[in-house]
Design brief:
With about 100 residues, the chain is mainly β. It has a single domain, classed as 10 Kd Chaperonin, Protein Cpn10, Chain O, CATH 2.30.33.40. Helix content is about 0%, strand content about 40%. The protein has a six-stranded antiparallel β-sheet, with no helix packed on it. It has a two-stranded antiparallel ribbon with strand order 3-4.
């Protein structure tokens, strides 16, 4: 099913988090890093200003983004976990190395 969103919303597929260290210790949820990364799956057309001008979203599908772990709304569709974020909840775009 294609993912469609509205306004300045961004659909992100979060990266799997590893809650275990290399030595086998399990990291509790409250001690895990606060920032998460994920890949943008879909973006809305943009935000509408008071002058009825559409401001396009600055990220595109395929971009890897950084966001706070408490940001957005978590949804599960077609067996995959997704997060729907507003564009201003995205901290930045992670550059490919």
């Amino acid at each position: 099913m294609p993912h469609v969103t509205t306004q300045d919303r961004v659909v992100v597929q979060p990266d799997k988090t590893n809650n275990q260290t290399a030595s086998g210790l399990i990291i509790p949820e409250f001690e895990a890093p606060r920032n998460k990364t994920g890949v943008v799956v879909a973006v809305g057309p943009g935000r509408l200003t008071k002058k009825n001008v559409v401001v396009a979203v600055a990220v595109a599908p395929g971009d890897r983004v950084l966001f706070d772990s408490g940001a957005g709304v978590s949804v599960r569709t077609d067996g995959e976990d997704l997060i729907i974020l507003k564009e201003d909840e995205i901290i930045g775009v992670v550059a490919d190395e």
